[in-house]
Write a structure and sequence with these properties.
Length: 171
């Protein structure tokens, strides 16, 4: 009897789909849309913040992803202020990272296709952009769950709506 139990449990675990750490919901989308103008304004106040060269690792542990990205950011004051804005809006940094990357997944897939065409035409700098985009897209794709895909389908129109105050914060 004991011999059958362990294989049955392992078989059940293999059939169980991976669950997302944080689900894309209306409430989470509202939080993201609230913090984005604040974060954009904060970023514009810091000239030395460069998020373009930050690289994700090939795993779905969003807390570890956040810690690695945080370590790549030289401006600790900026990081502290970002964390404060997120906390004021009831978001954890790893949760924010996971949600924003997953919400960007459909657009990133389209961007990837465009970059691939430009790289084929030997446009300067496109191969490097394509490589960075490929790594990011690969990480997100490996971490996206069926629940995420369903939520994205349901909320895509709201996700794509402009965030009020963003143009004011950027100008």
């Amino acid at each position: 009897m004991k011999r059958l139990f362990l294989p049955a449990v392992i078989g059940l675990m293999l059939q169980t789909p991976v669950m997302a750490d944080t689900l894309i919901t209306e409430a989470n989308l509202a939080k993201i849309k609230t913090v984005m103008p604040k974060l954009s304004a904060l970023k514009s106040a810091y000239e030395d913040v460069d998020e373009q060269d930050m690289v994700l690792e090939q795993h779905c542990n969003w807390q570890k992803q956040y810690e690695a990205l945080k370590a790549q950011q030289a401006n600790t004051r900026y990081v502290t202020e970002v964390e404060q804005i997120l906390a004021e809006n009831d978001l954890k940094p790893a949760e924010f990272l996971e949600l924003t990357l997953k919400m960007s997944w459909p657009m990133l897939k389209m961007t990837q296709q465009s970059l691939a065409m430009l790289a084929e035409n030997k446009q300067p700098g496109m191969e490097e952009a394509l490589q960075k985009s490929s790594v990011l897209l690969n990480v997100i794709t490996n971490c996206i769950t069926n629940e995420d895909k369903q939520a994205l389908d349901k909320l895509q129109q709201r996700i794509n709506q402009p965030i009020s105050g963003m143009s004011d914060a950027v100008d």
